[in-house]
Amino acid sequence: MLANPTATPTESILVIDDNADMLELQRLVLEDAGFAVITAQSGEEALNVLTSSPPPEPSLILLDMRMGKMSGQDFLLRLEERRPQIVDEVPVVFLTGQDVVPASRASGFIRKGRGMSEFLQDVRRYIDMGHQARLVH
User: Fold this and answer.
1) Closest C-alpha to 89, from 61, 68, 115
2) Measured distance CA(104)–CA(86) in Å, rounded
3) How far is 110 from 26, CA to CA, in rounded Å?
4) Side-chain half-sphere CA neighbours of 109 within 13 A
5) Residue among 114, 37, 102, 105 at smallest CA distance from 65
6) For position 12, what pLDDT does the model report?
7) Residue 91's closest CA among 46, 136, 58?
């Protein structure tokens, strides 16, 4: 078990990934570490979740860079248009296999394929840094 004693029930993570297997794996790992997890299999589904009433207030948004209809970067731009306060208050972190991500208001990125322990350490770091963690491009 990959327990994380510092996760609290109030810490929730929205995971957005169009790959159902990756989405399920990330959900299981994060829940096992003590996080509440909300999942969305597309950018549009995630926007619907974040604009619902009352909207969830995640501690972190993990966002796949490459998705079918709406890329991670496109999702972030649309989120800024619809709910700019979320982008101001919640760290958004790209999940990617790339070494570099395009300039955006994302807080950073986590490379796919890292070990689960490193993945959880990165998640914890971004939650602890909060919205003040911003990439400067």
Assistant:
1) 61
2) 14
3) 12
4) 21
5) 102
6) 92
7) 58
Stated pTM of the model: 0.85
Task: Write down the residue that tokens 């993990």 correspond to.
Answer: 62
Angle subtended by helix axes 116-129 and 20-32, to nearest 10: 70
The three-state (H, E, C) secondary structure of the chain, written as one string: CCCCCCCCCCCEEEEECCCHHHHHHHHHHHHHCCCEEEEECCHHHHHHHHCCCCCCCCCEEEEECCCCCCCHHHHHHHHHHHCHHHHHHCCEEEEECCCCCCCCCCCEEEECCCCHHHHHHHHHHHHHHHHHCCCCC
Average pLDDT over residues 69-91: 89
* Helix axes 43-50 and 72-82, enclosed angle (nearest 10): 20
Q: How high is the pLDDT of residue 103? A: 67
Taking only the tens place, the pLDDT of each residue in 3-57 is 444 555 578 999 999 999 999 999 999 999 999 999 999 999 999 999 887 767 8
The whole-number pLDDT of residue 43 equals 92
**Overall fold of domain 15-98+113-132:** Rossmann fold (3.40.50)
